[in-house]
Amino acid sequence: MLPIPRSSAFRSFCRIKEFSQFSTSSGLQTYFHNKAFRSEFQARQRIFRNFLRGQRRFQSSKKDHSEKTPISWRISIICAALGGLYALHLYNTMKNQELREAREKRKKLGTAAIGGSYELVDFDGKTRTDKDFLGQWVLLYFGFTHCPDICPDEIEKLVKVVDKIDSDKELPNIQPVFITVDPARDTPKAMKQYCEEFSPKIIGLTGPKEKIDEACKNYRVYYSKGPEDEDGDYIVDHTIIAYLMNPKGEFVEYFGKNKTYDTLVFEIKEYMRKYAVFED
Ligand code: NI
Fold first, then answer.
1. Which of 28, 87, 104, 143 has a Cα at 20 to 30 A from 48?
2. 3-state secondary structure of 45
3. Cβ neighbourhood burial of 34 (10 Å; 0-12, 13-18, 19+)
4. pLDDT tens digits along 22-43
């Protein structure tokens, strides 16, 4: 429904229409009026038509608007849904970040307890401490030279790993260090003879029992001397673990006997690459 037009255009149109109806009775009058007012009549008619057109446009625009509303609602819902999804994604990302940080923190706290200082002697009886290896990657292993099978196998594996890492020109070298848990028999000379059988790269360390005990305690290495046989021979039960230390002298990872050569090479390379990116 059109609202009642109140514009001057409508009023003048009505007046003209009325006037021309009355005036059609007399020819001259009609002619005069027609002649005199035709142009104005037509002009006003045009104005009124435009007025009506405007009203219609106004109505249809109102209609259009009401028709567009559901579309904009749909858009709003889609936007809200997308916004919700994005918020969820952000929330998850933040949560994951937090978890990662917590895990790293826990790892740092846990690993801070492993490693530490030691003061032992090398093949030449020269004092060597953990500080001597700063700036180098170290693969540290505890064992004893009379070990029947496990230590030789482990040292052989570690030497192979070290050679592999050293052959990679993209990566830094790694220093193998062997600390004895049997200082009574493993003199500097015995250590030298034993280590040279595997690789000239190994630095073997020994020392007084208290110093060995201190080193073992710092690295959470357990050892226990077994009973002696009639020849005075004995076995030393000990933890079979190799420790990876970074150039800052910090503990990075430990590798048990079950870790294969390939795993060790892969993991050490990964740690070296990560260190190069994040620590250097
Ligand atoms: Ni052993």
1. 28
2. helix
3. middle
4. 444 455 455 555 566 577 777 7
Question: How do residues 149-207 score in pLDDT, each as one tens digit?
Answer: 899 999 999 999 999 999 999 999 999 999 999 999 999 999 999 999 999 999 999 99
| Domain assignment of residue 3, yes or no | no
Distance 237 CA to ligand 1 centre (A): 7
Q: Which residues surround ligand 1, an ion (CB under 5 A)?
A: 143, 147, 150-151
- Ligand 1 centre to CA of 249 (Å) is 24
Same domain, 14 and 146: no
Supply the angle between the helices 27-112 and 8-23 in degrees, to the nearest 10. Answer: 160
Kindly state whether residue 50 falls inside one of the protein's structural domains: yes
For residue 269 the two structure tokens come to 């390379």
Global pTM?
A: 0.62
CATH of the domain at 129: 3.40.30.10
Average confidence score pLDDT of the chain: 83
